[in-house]
Amino acid sequence: MKVLIIGAAGQLGYDLSRTFASGHQILGADIAGSGAEREVDITELNNVVELAVDYQPDVVINAAAFTNVDGCQTNRQDCWEVNATGAGNVARACGICGGASLIHISTDYVFDGSGNEPYSEHNPAAPLGEYGRSKFAGEEEVRKELPGKHLIVRTAWLFGSHGNNFVKTMLKLGRERAELSVVDDQTGSPTFAGHLAMALRALAENRLEDPGVYHMTGSGHCTWYEFAAEIFRLTDIKVILKKTTSEEFKAPAPRPAYSVLANTRAPEIKMPSWQEGLIECLKELGELSK
């Protein structure tokens, strides 16, 4: 299978490239200066079409996104160009290049978090901020441009050994400061990029004929405070960790209070727990012995 990975230099793209390299032919593409094998700007339709027509992939995985949640709130134009327009361009390019299937990565932030039970793939979206709104608009573009040949995979709280994420931030701050405050009123499912990449490979190999929305996250759930506490426990970093609220933290963008996702459409693909993912990530970072 020929697989085109867009966003290959990013956090998830790095693990996708490693995971698909065995047994499949892959091409990684990302923005100029990223170090990816090919350059692509998904906000420019002709640029994406040229790449897709040249490579003729069987499957395109779109892992490119504007993921800075607060940055999306303050830089709406770039956020929407990448997350909404860009997603539509990739989907359209799949159709133009000969009918490649598309796996498009989305987010738990398409939900408002007002519930207290895991959201299934069938729950209606109700995003709170610009990031969630733009990502849901991207989903709609994919559905419109490539009906019947797409998988929209929502994930959550992504972390890995490559790129910037909550785990790396906590490790850095925990060594720089004597005391940290972390919000304890947002609940979700941290997801290790390496485990998500394996789930996406399983979907690509087994579910392309069953289009629609899928939920793939680390199993279990926690708050950001509980996530941080586990990071420090495993690494034995001594820091005073205090609980705070979203209101006290005053982030520019609103976040869902509860965004745990239920995988009801592909239960045979069982994601490891977020704790297992954290251990794997810390090992890759050299924070734990192998």
Radius of gyration computed on alpha carbons: 18 Å
Uncertain runs: none
Structural class call reads alpha/beta
User: At CATH's second level, what is the architecture?
Assistant: 3-Layer(aba) Sandwich
| Coarse morphology | globular
**Count of spatially separate domains:** 1
Report what the structure shows.
- The mean pLDDT is 96.
- The protein is of the alpha/beta class and 290 residues long.
- The protein is built from ten helices and 13 strands.
- Helix content is 40%, strand content 18%.
- The strands form four sheets. Strands 3-2-1-4-5-6-11 form a seven-stranded parallel β-sheet, with helices on both faces. Strands 7-10 form a two-stranded parallel ribbon.
- It has a single domain, classed as NAD(P)-binding Rossmann-like Domain (Rossmann fold, 3-Layer(aba) Sandwich).
Helices and strands, with pairings:
Layout: E1 2-6, H1 11-20, E2 25-30, E3 38-39, H2 45-55, E4 59-62, H3 69-74, H4 76-96, E5 101-107, H5 130-145, E6 150-155, E7 158-159, H6 166-176, E8 179-183, E9 187-188, E10 191-192, H7 193-206, E11 212-215, E12 222-223, H8 224-235, E13 240-244, H9 246-249, H10 274-284
Parallel strand pairs: 1-2, 1-4, 2-3, 4-5, 5-6, 6-11, 7-10, 8-13
Antiparallel strand pairs: 9-12
